Structure formats: C-alpha cells, structure tokens
C-alpha cells in the first residue's frame, strides 16, 4: 500500500485526506487512480500549528481503519506564498517549513505548494462530471492548460505537460494592470484611483470578491443604476453600508459580495444586476487575456470560489463574448476549450495529485 497525505490548509479550515495510490485500475484521470481512505475537516484557529492537526488526524485514521503504515509522502496546499518550501499563512500566525514537518511527522517527503498551484494540479485530475464546458474548442493534447479563479483575490497558473507527468507554474497575473474596455470601465478605473489614492489599478481590484463590492460602490456613488428604481433593494444597500462601517475590524459579520451576487441571480436589485454584469464581462475579458498569453489548447479552467456560486451568470453570453472579443485574435480563442470547475475540493485533489507524482 502506497499511502499519501494531502492537505488543504487555510486560515479558517484545514482539510486532510489519506489516499491510497497503489491501485492498478486503468482510468482516464489521476484522481480516479487515487483512492480516498479517510478525510477530516478541522478548524485551523483551534490549533497552534499544523503538526498537532496531522498527528490527531493520523491517530483518528488508525482508529477508523486499523493499524496502517505511515504515509510515505505528503503535500500541503497553503493559503499563502510558499518560498523555498517555507510558508506563512495569510490569515494565521503559522510558519511552516517542509523540512521541519518531515522530521516532526516522520514522513519521508513533505512538499508545500501554494493553494492555487494546487488547483492547477487538481484540474488535471477531474472527471468530466466535475467540469461545465462553456466552449468545446479544438483540444490539442500536449498543449498547456490555463487556470484562473476569482475569490478573495484573483489566482492564475498554468500547467505544462511533461513526458513523465505535469508541472504547474503559479503566476501573479492578478496583479497586472486592469485594462478598461468601455467608457463605463474607464470611469470605474478613475473612481478606484481616486478612492484608494493609488497610481494604478490591478485587475484583482475588479475581478474578485472585493471587486464585486467595488463595482457596486462605484455604480451607487455615481448614481448609474437609476433606470429601474423600483427594483433597487434597500436590504443590499444596508448590507454594503454595514460592511463599510465594519471595514478594519477583526470580525466582519456581513458578506456584501455574496449578497450582491445572490440578488443579481434572483433579479431583485437593479444595482446588483448591473454590478454583476460588469463583473462577469471583466472576468471574461481577463480569462481571454490569459488565453492569449498561454494559448492553452488543452483547456482554460475557471476555478475559484465565486464561479460555482454565480454559475448561471457565467453561462450567459456576456462572459464568452468578453472572452473572445480580441479583434483579429478571436478565431484563435475560438479554438481554446473553456471549462468551469464544479468541484470545490479541487485544491485538495491537487495536493494528492502533487504528492502522487513527486
């Protein structure tokens, strides 16, 4: 039995999964060749470090599955930057070092990867049922894959096929410049420059959860959603005001981005609908930018926490129209397969895939 330990380590929760990689069953994806034996979710803030969580997990595993050998390899996806196999979590005072984890956990090989890098590994292990295809394109085996995902920020990475597997490369394209494509988007950029007293606007300030709120504030403050006042929700307006009041506090009790997107889906607030229309178009345009940079004929994957929550909005023509609206390059982008990742555990799957191919 070849045992692997996979972990998705975040500021709020830590999910650990024990995987058996010895199966010889022929299958179409790496994920199908990795058999999940046991999985537990923990509240990260209840523990001083990752080590006691893993130790507790391995003890529980023995109780549930009997006396089994120690995992041979482990890969942990970290919500924060990973430099030279060390990491500090963005929202926890944990400092992780793969070398120390190897000793303390008695696991022969421990690897730390960024959580969005894990998503890159994860998309290679997804069955067809875990993706929704927006554009079939003309798939080409051996070509790169691209991954983009809006959530708290905007993650991007790319996957290169190798003769003996794959290699995922994280990148910081979310911090490239926001490129307005209309007079309204130019006004949005000017609004953000003035509001934050900055000299440039990154695309992440628009295409992210906070970006949804920023677009709403822009439309509200510029009074640009006045065409249908009978469908302007005071409830959403109050949620955004409460969030603005709580900004800077440790415990924020409202999630305005979720409220705005839900109101848009239910078509009960004009301001929210206009907000999400701008967001979807900006998201599609940035996905198209990534596709032009990589030419990912093996697939461009839309991941991140927002995509599945606004799925009907991404299925409207606005997203793919913005994706493909690249002038003379439109025929090239028509060849790129575009998929939405439906499996919320794609990062955990990616950690297991990474451990398997180490």
Instruction: Give the overall form.
Output: globular
Biggest sheet, spatial arrangement of strands: 9-14-13-10-11-12
Main sheet attributes: strand count, strand direction, barrel closure: 6 strands, mixed
What fraction, in percent, of the residue positions are helical?
A: 25-40%
Characterise this structure.
The chain is an alpha/beta fold and 358 residues long. The chain contains 12 helices and 14 strands. The strands form 3 sheets. A 6-stranded mixed sheet has the order 9-14-13-10-11-12, sandwiched between helices. A hairpin with a 3-residue loop joins β1 and β2. α5 (209-221) packs across α7 (256-265).
Question: What layout of secondary structure does this protein have?
Answer:
Blueprint: E1 3-9, E2 13-20, E3 35-43, H1 50-65, E4 73-78, E5 82-83, E6 86-88, E7 95-97, H2 98-105, E8 109-114, H3 115-123, E9 131-135, E10 145-150, E11 154-162, E12 165-171, H4 183-196, H5 209-221, H6 234-246, H7 256-265, H8 270-294, E13 300-303, H9 311-314, H10 317-324, H11 330-333, E14 338-341, H12 346-357
Parallel strand pairs: 1-4, 4-8, 10-13, 13-14
Antiparallel strand pairs: 1-2, 2-3, 5-6, 6-7, 9-14, 10-11, 11-12
Helix pairs in contact: 3-12, 5-7, 5-8, 6-7, 7-8, 8-10
Would you kindly provide a brief summary of this structure?
With 358 residues, the chain is an alpha/beta fold.
Features:
about 350 residues, six-stranded mixed sheet, alpha/beta, globular, single chain, 12 helices
């Amino acid at each position: 039995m070849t045992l692997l330990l996979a972990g998705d380590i975040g500021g709020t929760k830590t999910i650990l999964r024990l995987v058996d990689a010895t199966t010889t069953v022929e299958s179409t994806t790496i994920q199908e060749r990795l058999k999940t034996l046991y999985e537990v979710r923990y509240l990260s803030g209840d523990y001083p470090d990752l080590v006691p969580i893993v130790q507790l997990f391995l003890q529980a595993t023995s109780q549930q599955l009997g006396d089994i050998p120690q995992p041979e390899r482990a890969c942990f996806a970290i919500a924060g930057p990973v430099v030279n196999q060390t990491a500090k979590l963005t929202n926890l005072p944990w400092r992780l070092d793969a070398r120390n984890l190897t000793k303390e956990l008695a696991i022969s090989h421990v690897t730390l990867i960024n959580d969005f890098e894990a998503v890159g590994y994860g998309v290679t292990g997804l069955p067809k049922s875990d993706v929704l295809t927006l554009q079939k394109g003309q798939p080409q085996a051996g070509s790169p894959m691209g991954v983009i995902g809006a959530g708290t920020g905007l993650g991007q990475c790319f996957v290169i096929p190798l003769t003996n597997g794959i290699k995922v490369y994280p990148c910081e394209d979310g911090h490239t410049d926001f490129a307005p494509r209309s007079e309204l988007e130019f006004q949005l950029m000017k609004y953000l420059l003035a509001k934050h007293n900055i000299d440039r606007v990154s695309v992440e300030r628009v295409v992210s959860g906070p970006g949804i709120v920023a677009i709403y504030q822009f439309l509200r403050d510029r009074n640009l959603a006045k065409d249908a006042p009978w469908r302007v929700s005071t409830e959403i307006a109050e949620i955004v005001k409460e969030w603005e009041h709580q900004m800077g506090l440790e415990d924020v009790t409202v999630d305005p981005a979720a409220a705005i997107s839900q109101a848009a889906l239910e078509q009960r607030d004009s301001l929210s609908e206009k907000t999400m229309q701008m967001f979807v178009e900006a998201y599609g345009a940035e996905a198209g930018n990534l596709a032009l940079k990589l030419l990912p004929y093996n697939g461009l994957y839309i991941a991140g926490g927002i995509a599945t929550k606004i799925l009907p909005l991404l299925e409207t023509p606005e997203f793919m129209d913005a994706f493909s609206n690249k002038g003379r390059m439109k025929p090239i982008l028509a060849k790129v397969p575009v998929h939405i990742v439906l499996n919320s555990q794609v990062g955990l799957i990616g950690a297991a895939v990474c451990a398997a191919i180490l």
